[in-house]
Amino acid sequence: MNIIESFRMATATLVANKMRSSLTMLGIVIGNASVIAMVGIGEGAKNLASEQFESLGPNVIFVGAGTQEERRTTFNTPQTLVWEDAIAIKEQVPSIRDVAPQIAANQLITYRNRNASEQIIGTTPEYLTVRSFEVDKGRFFSSIDVKRNRRVVVLGAEIADKFFPQQDPLGKKIRVKNINLEIIGVLKAKGAFLGQNQDLTVYVPLTTMANQIVGNTSPYGTQVTIISIAAKDEDSIRAAKLQIENLLRLRHKITGKDDFSVSTQKDVLQIVGTITSGLTVLLAAIAGISLLVGGIGVMNIMLVAVSERTKEIGLRKAIGAKEGDILWQFLIEATILSAAGGAVGTVVGVTGIIIVGALSPLAPTISPVAIVLAVGVSGAIGLSFGVFPAKAAAKLDPIVALRSI
Q1: Residue limits of the MacB-like periplasmic core domain (predicted)?
Q2: Are 229 and 88 in contact (CB under 8 A)?
Q3: CA 47 to chain centre
Q4: How far, in Å, CA of 276 to CA of 320, rounded?
Q5: DSSP symbols for 239-294
Q6: Does residue 14 carry a pLDDT above 60?
Q7: How far apart are CA 204 and CA 121, in angstroms?
Q8: CB 145 within 8 A of CB 152
Q9: Are strands 192-193 and 60-65 parallel, antiparallel or unpaired?
Q10: Main-chain phi, psi angles of 2, to 5 degrees
Q11: pLDDT at 155
């Protein structure tokens, strides 16, 4: 009997037992769909992180107070950076374009009967250019506003809509810690960054933030949380990072461990990419387990089929079928089940990716490599797990089988 005839017989047998064939394929379907969907969603998360980092502004360098480990393990932000550090960086580092020191804190914001606890950032006018923000209405505060500690505020796009629906917020006043702040501008929508909605942020002059809202707690100057720095161009980032580190070590008289950390967009994006890639691999591996379970299901059902079809196998052997013919028929049945399950699982996985992309901010990608790998692995699993029941069927003694007729 040739392969084509074995294929026809295997197909006819599977079609005749539709329910059993469908249930056998279910594990393979779930496994393939899970692998394809998890890989696609993982790639979407990586792409989203990349887009968000690009939205921070071109060639941005971040100087944070304390080391990254200290910021992760301590509740309060280390107090190791001051405004004077930012001024020194701007004056003494030749490879940078602009510097924007920041003080960030969550505060209760009130307007009449509306209130919300949102992030307030005290900064300087350079923040707009360093972080690539644009003003939608009014203006951003100026260096004069900073020098004179003026009680002015610029709202993010979403918080402006939240507090002043269908109203012009310019000229109105919001209240923060018993201080009235006059709204002078509204920024264009920027979107979220790593879970932090930048459009719900409120911006005030750095001096107003330090002296009137959070208090100036450092004896060495105006304490800041972070310093955002724009390098002149992409080629200048590495040199700027080294120059900033050396300057701050001299200013802070550091001989051992640094009390600050300097990160570039590329550094942080690489860390995020490593995390998302690791999670993608982990999720795909977990999903792959269901493929293995599906393969075991194929083997179990095929073993049941061998016991149920003992008479058929004995009769075929009695009229001249060889062991190879029986072996091929059962192997082809197992492979068809796995391949069909892989095809259906691919459709389900791709559909899931499209739905996730439509209902979430992620932009999942359909990975051809993941599809080929999942379908190939499912077919290989079906073939591998079909070998044992196929051999059992091929070695069945026709005399014993015919006695049961």
Answers
A1: 21-246
A2: no
A3: 7
A4: 58
A5: HHHHHHHHHHHHHTT-SSS-SEEEEEHHHHHHHHHHHHHHHHHHHHHHHHHHHHHH
A6: yes
A7: 6
A8: yes
A9: unpaired
A10: -85, 175
A11: 94
Residues 246, 283 within the same domain = no
Q: Is the dihedral of CA 334, 340, 343, 346 positive or negative?
A: negative
The pLDDT, as a whole number, for residue 89 is 93
Burial class (CB in 10 A: 0-12, 13-18, 19+), 294: buried
Runs of H (alpha helix) within 309-367: 310-318, 323-359
Query: What does the H/E/C string look like for 254-267?
Result: CCCCCCEEEEEHHH
Which string of DSSP letters, residue by residue, matches 4-65? HHHHHHHHHHHHHTHHHHHHHHHHHHHHHHHHHHHHHHHHHHHHHHHHHHHTT-TTEEEEEE
Of 231, 258, 285, the one marking the end of a domain is 258
Neighbours of 261 (CB within 10 A): 20
User: What is the maximum span of the chain, computed from C-alpha positions, in angstroms?
Assistant: 105
Q: 72 near 385, Cβ under 8 Å?
A: no
Provide the number of structural domains found in the chain.
Answer: 2
Residues 312 and 287 in one domain: yes
Same domain? 189 vs 245: yes
Q: Which of the pair, 273 or 172, is modelled with greater confidence?
A: 172
Single-letter residue type at 104? A
Q: Are residues 131 and 252 in the same domain?
A: yes
DSSP symbols for 150-180: --EEEE-HHHHHHHSTTS--TT-EEEETTEE
Bigger pLDDT: 119 vs 55: 119
Element of type H or E holding 98: strand 96-111
The whole-angstrom separation of Cα 348 and Cα 341 is 10
Mean pLDDT of the region 60-67? 82
Q: What is the DSSP string of 191-217?
A: -EETTEEGGG-EEEEHHHIIIIII---
Q: Using the CB atoms, write b or e for 304-327: b if 16+ within 10 Å.
A: ebbeebbeebbebbeeebeeebbb
Structural domain for 365, as ranges: 3-51+271-403
